[in-house]
Request: fold
Amino acid sequence: MTAFPAGTILGYPRIGRRRELKRAVEAHWAGALDEAALEQTAADLRRATRERLASLGLGRDDSSIPESFSYYDQVLDAAAAFGALPARFADLREADGSIGLRAYFAAARGDAERTPLEMTKWFDTNYHYLVPEIAPDTAFALTSDRFAQQVAEARADNVTTRPIVVGPVTFLALSKPADGAPEGFVPLDRLEDLLPVYVELLAALRAAGAEWVQLDEPALVSESLDVAPAELAAVAERAYAVLGAAQSRPSIVVAAGYAQLSDESWRVLAAAPIEAVAVDLTRGGVPAAVPGLESKTLVGGVIEGRNIWRGDLAAAWEKLERLQGLGAASVAVGTSTSLQHVPHDVDDESDLDARLRSWLAFADQKVGQVVALARGLVEGRAAVEADLTAATEALTDRAAADGVHDGAVRPRAAALDEEAFSRGPQDERDAAQEALGLPLLPTTTIGSFPQTGDIRKARAAHDRGELSTSDYEDVLRLEITSVIGLQEELGLDVLVHGEPERNDMVQYFAEHLDGFAVTRNGWVQSYGSRATRPSILWGDVSRPEPITVRWAQFAQALTEKPVKGMLTGPVTILAWSFVRDDQPLATTANQVALALRDEIADLEEAGIRIIQVDEPALRELLPLKKADQPAYLDWSVASFRLATAGADAATQVHTHLCYSEFGVVIDAIAALDADVTSIEAARSRGEVIADIAESGFSRGIGPGVYDIHSPRVPQVDEIVDLLEQAVDSIPVRRVWVNPDCGLKTRAYPETVAALGNLVAATERVREGRLVQSV
Reply:
């Protein structure tokens, strides 16, 4: 076996520099690209990635290039490899029992007969993974050879890659019990049955030419899972005793990123019969001592994998030196996590200000940082002194730049008092909002409607200067008029304007706020084929002029029904941007909140009486360490309240949360003090409703009844079942009816059909409840 490389990354963006994989996969789903052509596109993308990483300085033959490709999601990849798809997909397997792309994509997206796997956030990131469903009788077996095929593919190109697989502890800890599993069963109960399949996979990888394998175990850093950290450490001890003892395997590096590794997990991994441990040193320090590391390589994750700032290489070097003091056989440099969370290349962003670009490091620049520090480990600090100095100079320049500190913004935030964060009593607001005249079980949508090809083409033509602003706005007015008419025809109660003017729910605001910059090619995978372009929040934030008012006012003039004003909340704007790291997040959040507070005042002045401030990322940013969670919840809730507390009692304030595991942050959600909260619930089949009922949540609540992340149209009876589940547990006058999320990514035919079913289901339940009350 070869030694671990002196420098590596724990993963790389996998959608392609120009989203080539997205386009190929969606063409395949649409029937325009057959499976063979899709496979060829994917192989070409993998080859281009390997060549790019080699050109940036990672070795072709030392396992420093990771094999981190996925068609959709790394957790789904593991589920497919281990035969862990639910029984409802069994008939989609290949003739030999293997799991191919047909079953794989059906599990990800669902189809007319099958609901997809549930989707939720990957730890505290904006990436979504698919949740495996494990039963006591799930038949684990090696049912896909894709991991080994990709290793062999690279070897055929004379590249020795390091395959990346979700480790057994994290795979089971992130899974959920399948429907019908006995009470008390947890997927971790199946560890002994799963480990032999991992052993078989390791042998297949070794036979294909892998010299190292990376097993990702971020569950070992988290205190936010249902399993206690000490229990996870004990499971890891057993798992790696078995995997380490396998007779035919590559060398194993266990990667535990996203937060600081606990003392217990350090002890377990130091004692395990594995060859290397990779730890996140950007979100945690170096322990004082860890016995048992004498035979292992420690991979210090000193290059931030989740943000895009150039960083302090001198400080990173000092951490590597402290790591060397732990007595490991060797120390290597790495990224803190996979680089799937950042865009490809700063050099693709010629539109950005050159000074701002000098402060940034996207994936390719981070590879360069890793390569430089690795050279220093081999040759000594003097060999990279110029790199360390250049990074320090960039930090100094950034701190002194105009706009990083704005003298007009900071005094206003400093002058805030307690009253600025509080609305009036709930009963007074409820009484004032009766004037809205809403029916029992009011129906609405979350905000966006499908963005058609024509809308996207018009926006692109306007951006290129080929379509005048006047003509572009005429296109938007026609679309808004159509969307309002459609909602009235369907019979929805509270309408939205559809957001055709918005490219993205965060980027649109970033383009209208000072302190932000936006990219042209800075795409980051959110889930599956969906990608976003996080904005760069680099300076103090302020609002030069109203952002949404005229479009909301235009829409409201088209109908007698209330139209919601639609804003993105301060926490979500931070979560879905690359945020400055030179001041507390709470300070930045309050600056954004003040800008939104001004926008709400202008919407009220324009006659808008329902305003939704979306916070889908509230749960997402929750720190993985419990000791850090109260402070986060304090400032995140406060920033939302600062944004909304100026609203009049008669203005109904809504919010929306995505994949939020409602029970985990239910007290914080109540503390937001929104009049109505909508949450995602359909894909999990209403699991959160019990949490809502048990909590005594006293405000309006809309548990989503239509999963918009699948092209599947829910039938009326399905929606009725979810609604009945809700109104059986929650007072009916507090229940709203809505989809799980915005409809931007869906097509109009499925949207119209689904919303029609939503209204029909609501009418059926509404009539039943009215009869019961007579």
